[in-house]
Design a protein that fits this description.
heterodimer; A: alpha+beta; 60s Ribosomal Protein L30, Chain: A; 14% strand; B: alpha+beta; Rossmann fold; Neuraminidase; 6 helices; 16% helix; globular
Chain lengths: 172, 440
Amino acid sequence: MKRFGLLAVIGMVGLMLMLASCGGEKPQPVDETPPVVVVDTTPTEPVEPPPPPPPPPKLKESQLQTVFFDFDKFNLRPDAKSSLDHNYALLNEFADAIIKIEGHCDERGTIEYNLSLGEKRARAVMEYLTGLGIDATRLSIISYGKERPLDPASNEAAWAKNRRGEFVIISQ
Amino acid sequence: MRKTLPLLILVTILLVAGNSFAQGDNVRNIFFDTIRTGDVKGTPIGVEGMKYIGNQYITYDDSLLMDYVSGTVQFDIDFHADLELIPLDSFYLKTYEIFEMDLLGWKRLGADLLVKLEAEFPSTKIRARWKLFDTIRRQQVARGVVEKHKSQWREIGHEIANEIVHTLTGEDGIFLTKIVYIKQIGSAKELFISDFDGAHARQVTDNGSINLSPVFSADGKRIYFTSYLEGDPQLYSVEVNSGEIKRVADFPGIIAAPAVSPDGNKIACTMTKDGNSEIYVIDLNGKVIKRLTWHRAIDTAPTWSPDGQMIAFSSDRSGAPQIYLMDSDGLNTRRLTYEGRYNDSPIWSNRGDRITFVSRTKRGRFDLASINTSGHDYRVLTEVGMNENPHFSPDGKHIIFSSTRRSPRDIYTMDITGRNQRRLTRFGNCSNPNWGPIVD
């Protein structure tokens, strides 16, 4: 009961403070310094700031197509080549884009072998693009072996998705 | 007596396995002969529960400790490939209305040997005595004492088991060794270390990156591993006690599949610095000593022969991964496996006579298989799940590996014959084990 009384007092005080802060508008301090008149002596020509150049369109990672491989293979299938032709056009258009190609494998086979296989896949993708004329200094590769599956399931559909070469934009 | 007993056991095993004792070389084939001849087991041995021999009342906690110690000894003895733990049959006890087994009782249960365990509790310690009996001759053949703080009851049990194994076989026991494995935490893969039986697991790395292929240094103080810590998969080592990580080698591309040489001074590994996966030998400071392979195929997963003179590795130069052998200077390369379309991850047995590897078997999945170094006698050791990452125990009698048989992936052990497959971890996301050396 005593505690309740204390709470009530605190509540009342709080309420009063709130009311006080909302009430009565304080008079604004009056600025008494005279306005400075600036005389413009330059020939009058309406200076319009040039419209900011539209931001250059950026390449999005989602525009670059992932390429897929057969089990234990790193050669480029026809569908992979057409994906890479598509990516080549984009890389030509966005000439500042620096790209990392990631090679990935499905879960079958050993960690070490898949690490090597993933690199072969990434390298095959890179060599195809440099063959088309992309500057090799814009491209780098990394293999994740079977460590980063897109789909963790253990079936043909998941494995097919996981055997892939992915494009990551490092900078542009 | 101590010396004659191991001999006795050995002779028994050899006779049962159908070997002539005179052919000394056959000793190393005991284990594989046992598979061929059927279900030959190790020497049967009983381990009684620990008893208090002091003259005071003991606390409930102390009575639990005694159960823990005898449980540990029983697990270890059962684990050993050459020993067969005879479980104490409570049905037998009830039937004969006895509460304590004598040597004859154990003999009737089939035990040729019996271990009795006794405890005293001086201050905060356990003083554990073990006595080994021959139930046939009804004699005590060996005994010993281990004394440690109560919190170290596991170590007490393991040390007793080590002493018993040493008494019986003359070899050092593996029950105080460590293992390392990789556990997935979110998208990271971190190193964990534990006792050989999975107890005392603790995290060694905490870098949020992908860490792979851990292997112990020869002295067990460091672990070499591949990590994406700074981008590309490179070779690092971590000090087991401090957790301090050091970069071992720095070359463009991949550095993977490290294998420490038997003398502990070199590491064979796979690098892609020259544009393709090749096998190199580097020193412990990351300097290249020699490039061993020169093939445009994938060459990877090197393993040293126990004398350091040869290296086995996998290569897909035939169109699919197969196991090859070469001298440790890279000369005399020859193909070892022809069975099946996928053989990889070879490990060379401590005895030097066999190579165990991952094989895509007829059921279309990945199993562990074994072949002798002349390329004959291919045997499949597992038959469920996907089985990978084999490594030998330091005594060469066991294999540690990962399998998907009962969970997404966990660590298992088995005898080198494939018997006694046991699950070690139960987290469901563990792989890539390696077994540390026996250290004093």
